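Changelog-adjacent note: as of this version, every example in the card shows the full chain rather than a window. The one below runs 386 residues end to end.
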Amino acid sequence: MKKIRLLIGLTLALTLAFAPQAFSAEKREKFGADKRHEEVKKELRTIKTSKEEFRWKMVMPWSKGLLFYDMAQHFADSVKLASGGRLDIKLFSAGELVGAMESFDAVSKGSAEIGHDWPGYWKGKNENFVSFASVPFGLDTEGYNIWLYERGGLEQMQELYGRYNLYALPGGNGGQEMGFFSNKKASKMADFKGMRVRTPGWYMDIMNSLGASVTPLPGGEVYLALERGVIDAAEFSTPAINYPMGFDEITKYVIEPGVHQPSVQCAFFINKDAYNKLPDDLKWIIDIAAKETQLWSSAWQENLNIDAIKLFKQKVEFVKMDDAAITSFAKRTKEYLDELKGKYPDVKKTLDSQEQFKKDFADWREIRSGLTPWPIDDYINGKRTQ
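Full-length structure tokens:
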């Protein structure tokens, strides 16, 4: 009898331990689901592996020496591998087939089937392209990934590109960019007044409004302009992308942080007519290869940044802007973005969506803070947040 009571007690304990919901007054449903799963189940009933072969041309603003070109090549390689060679994408760097800034129109009109870009280059067509590239004090890499894939950002991106006969997908994220390479040790707001600097996009307008003199020089012209003193300071991209450009050979300082671009988001844009001719299995391959490129690119870039920063520190001094300067930049940025939103409904819709995501994410960001993965000895000695 004692053994029976012991067995019953043990069974009850195990039941409580491994099935607590069975004793809950109100059972909860599963928290979240993969929305794509049901779509895939439907697709698998009809989808077939096609035999037709396609040869596409990809154009871009990049030369072969830039790591952005490598992102595009990585995507093309993934598509070719996954399709067994049925979709072969040949890359053409800037100037080989069309000029760097002609790639958007070339794909839109069908002269090439696909392009790779930093969406902010098309600011002249619609201001809102910058929202999908880099917003001063905006989304970091994690933020872009969540907003694009889970908060409706991708749909907004595709609607905007779609107006130009293009189908768009996120095409790699390079992470946070460096600040200004400069021969002036600027850390306070007043230091930037009168400086001649190179930066594109919305930060160009913001810097001009704060008293700087800004020109959006193409990347290939920046070194010479710095060397000849045409400009006093310039930013271009991430440590790994900047290092081959040699800015540290002709400047003394790098002014951080790169508040103009908390991350640099790229895109693939495909001529809609060419895309619509593809069988469904190749469309899925393109989608998955673009997501794989988005994941790989940020890990690849950040790992390269480790050595790039070590090399930069041998020649330049990294200068941190003081809090007052960063706050002034942030205030002026907010005023400027509000002005844009007042003029352009597209910009308002997208920036409001991004800002709402940041607000919604703020609780978890705050609760999880204080665990930045510094080397453990630094953490023990009190280093907490980034």
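Structural remarks: The longest helix spans residues 280-312.
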